């Protein structure tokens, strides 16, 4: 490979690593613990609140989440049943959202929230 081609490849990888936008992360997870709907709802609400999400139950099996950090906001919907839950992007401001892409910090928020929900669900099962 000649030097100019190698330089071009290195530049592409460097710019890709610095990309601020990534595909929007939506989560779908199974719940293997044998928990009641209220236990699942409470685990999700606690995980969200601890991660600085404003969590609002709007119907059985549905919770809306809102997070503001400085001038950035994100809205999500969490649906759940006795066997699974899903975290879905709804809307955002100042997170460079468009064409299925969003600022990478949004995905980090969702990954952290998902991880904490899983921990809360696991601890609910252990405490039974």
Would you mind describing this structure in some detail?
- With 128 residues, this protein is an alpha+beta fold.
- It has a single domain (21-126), classed as 2-Layer Sandwich (Alpha-D-Glucose-1,6-Bisphosphate, Chain A, domain 4).
- It contains 3 helices and 7 strands; from the N terminus they run αββαβββββα.
- It has helices spanning 3-17, 37-50, 104-126; strands at residues 21-23, 27-30, 54-59, 62-69, 72-80, 84-93, 101-103.
- The protein has a 5-stranded antiparallel sheet with strand order 2-6-5-4-3, covered by helices on one side. The protein has a two-stranded antiparallel sheet with strand order 1-7.
- Strand 3 (54-59) and strand 4 (62-69) form a beta hairpin.
- Helix 2 packs across helix 3.
- The longest helix has 23 residues, at 104-126.
- The radius of gyration is 18 Å and the shape is elongated.
Summarize the structure.
By secondary structure, the chain is of the alpha+beta class. It has a single domain, classed as Alpha-D-Glucose-1,6-Bisphosphate, Chain A, domain 4 (2-Layer Sandwich). The chain has three helices and seven strands, in the order H-E-E-H-E-E-E-E-E-H.
Record keyword descriptors for this entry.
128 residues; alpha+beta; Alpha-D-Glucose-1,6-Bisphosphate, Chain A, domain 4; 3 helices; 7 strands; 41% helix
Number of domains: 1
Q: What is the CATH class designation?
A: Alpha Beta
Mean pLDDT: 89
Query: In whole angstroms, how far apart are the ends?
Result: 62 Å
**Major sheet details:** 5 strands, antiparallel
Give the fraction of residues assigned to helices.
Answer: 40-55%
Helix/strand order: HEEHEEEEEH
- The largest beta-sheet arranges its strands as 2-6-5-4-3
- Beta strand count: 7
Rg from Cα: 18 Å
Ranges with pLDDT <50 over ≥5 residues?
8-17
Strand content: 25-35%
Q: State the helix count.
A: 3
Q: Shape, please?
A: elongated
CATH topology: Alpha-D-Glucose-1,6-Bisphosphate, Chain A, domain 4
**What is the CATH architecture annotation?**
2-Layer Sandwich
Structural class: alpha+beta
């Amino acid at each position: 490979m000649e030097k100019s081609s190698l330089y071009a490849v290195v530049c592409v990888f460097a710019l890709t690593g610095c990309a601020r936008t990534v595909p929007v992360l939506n989560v779908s997870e199974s719940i293997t613990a044998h928990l009641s709907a209220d236990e699942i709802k409470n685990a999700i609400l606690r995980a969200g609140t601890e991660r600085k999400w404003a969590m609002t139950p709007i119907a059985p099996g549905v919770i809306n989440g809102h997070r503001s950090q400085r001038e950035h906001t994100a809205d999500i919907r969490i649906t759940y049943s006795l066997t699974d839950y899903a975290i879905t992007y709804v809307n955002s401001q100042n997170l460079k959202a468009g064409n299925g892409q969003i600022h990478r910090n949004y995905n980090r928020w969702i990954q952290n929230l998902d991880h904490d929900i899983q921990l809360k669900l696991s601890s609910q099962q252990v405490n039974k």
